[in-house]
Amino acid sequence: MALWTAAEAARATGGDNRTDWTADGVSIDTRTLAPGDLFVALKAARDGHEFVAQALEKGAAAALVTHRPEGVAADAPLLVVPDVLAALEALGRAARARTNARVAAITGSVGKTSSKEMLRAALERQGRTHAAEASYNNHWGVPLTLARMPADTEYAIVEIGMNHPGEIAPLARLARPHVAMVTIVAPAHLEAFDSIEGIAREKASIFEGLEPGGTAIINGDLPTTPILRAAAEAAGAEIVSFGTQAGNHHRLTDIKVHEGCTVASARLWRTEVHLKVATEGAHFAVNALGCLATAAALGADRSHALMGLACWAPPPGRGTRETLVLDDGVAVGAIELIDDAFNANPASLAAALEVLAAARPRDDLGHIGKGRRIAILGDMLELGPEAAGLHAAVADEPAMAHVDLVHCVGPLMRELHRALPDGRRGRWVENAEDLAAKAARLVDPGDVVLVKGSKGSRVSRVVDAIRKLGHRSEMSEQEA
Fold first, then answer.
1. Ranges for the Mur ligase N-terminal catalytic domain (predicted)?
2. Do 145 and 231 have their domain in common?
3. 112 annotated among ligand-binding-site residues
4. Which of 279, 310, 341 is the last residue of a domain?
5. How far apart are CA 4 and CA 16, in angstroms?
6. Is 111 labeled as ligand-binding?
7. In whole angstroms, what is the distance from residue 119 CA to residue 306 CA?
8. What is the pTM (predicted TM-score) of this model?
């Protein structure tokens, strides 16, 4: 069954079709376009109209455009609209209207994408599940997620993010979730907000999009929880809280981090359960509990949700762990690499450092002879006028007491570098490329290495350079 026919898309967008066509998917990028996709010519860094001819050559079913681009035949399959982004929103709105799916929306300063993937794992065994790709959570990502949703979807998961005030509520109204979850409120995007309370109010505006009788899933452990609760009450939502503190409806009573997994005991109202995720970090267990509450509010089976969560591990760049075997002709041994180089703010960095602190280096393997816990940290971006102080304050994180060496990347991380004690202070460089070029000098067999930073800091270059030093250990992946 086609995702969109020409007639359906024209009806949804008010556009004008030049030919008849059917599309099996929706794409905004010719690099990942599949034959049969409707290509949406958005204007971003470049105008998507420049790629329409290429999209059609690659087998696009049609292109959503404002005009026929140069080099495109007069009889090409085009859906012509006044505004491409507005038309994509209209497609998303129509896709949402035609489905009977139970819809969840997720936002938060930290953990949106990982929670979205946890919830997907909890639901996909229980019905046809559709979820946002990657971290598609902005003004084009949310309508694109909805426009790609098949009509027979049973569960849908929409991730909603923001950079500035006023962005979340319109996207939530577009998604019309039955359940909305806020993972955590923490310092992030402070360039656009006066305070953490302002961030909380923006995150809480997700509840404005809830369907009548909807459910708000809120983290009950936060200083800003009252703001979230008040917004949920104003929206007329049923409120379910999760966390570690007494008084939460869903409460973790014990968390144990093991090599390759995190397990926890929890109480769901009066029911005791055991919860597991296949990665290390207490923060993952907390968000998994929120996802379990969300799945239950959607009407899913709780036992099947727990089994799905037990199989979940984070996507690349968001805390994935791998073992690399190094061999320089003298010393042979493995390092453990924690790749968390996609995003960073003070809360997520503190959580990542806790994971590193709990890791177990191995001695008697390399040139040094003693395994180390090493952090390679890139700038945390969009933190506003307090950015320098927030970076320096990382030196006081309790987990830092268990980190042997810290290398810093970027002008903001220089503040942390200056705040570190001499014994823990590694290299500081302006650019990630400078540190990547020295990758062989940064690590030694037996080390556990965390790489963490905002995407714009480009510390993923250091991850790539470290990977090139050795080869992955398949045995370690199976054991994990």
1. 24-94
2. yes
3. yes
4. 310
5. 15
6. yes
7. 10
8. 0.82
